[in-house]
Design goal:
alpha+beta; 2 domains; 5-stranded mixed beta barrel; 33% helix
């Protein structure tokens, strides 16, 4: 009897861990992420090189004229770097 209870408890724990992982993955991949970054330089195509999380990415500003060295907020909608912008 105790062995069955232990197996059921283990199964419930695994089920809860699986649901937690699915929710965690969903939140990481499909939610808007916001970071702080620093503007490093401009590019000829209207994008700016911005550094955040130790990486440098070229992205467009949202209605601003940034200056080199300025701290900005980076927005990554739905976790998609291709849609990113900064203000």
């Amino acid at each position: 009897m105790a062995d069955n209870i232990q197996k059921q408890s283990s199964a419930v724990n695994k089920l809860i861990q699986g649901i937690y992982k699915m929710l965690d993955d969903y939140c990481k991949n499909y939610s808007t992420m916001i970071y702080s970054g620093i503007v490093l330089s401009s590019n000829a195509d209207g994008t700016w090189n911005v550094q955040y999380n130790g990486e440098v990415h070229a992205m467009k500003p949202y209605k601003t004229s940034p200056t080199v060295g300025e701290m900005v907020k980076i927005f990554i909608p739905n976790g998609n770097q291709n849609l990113s912008f900064f203000m």
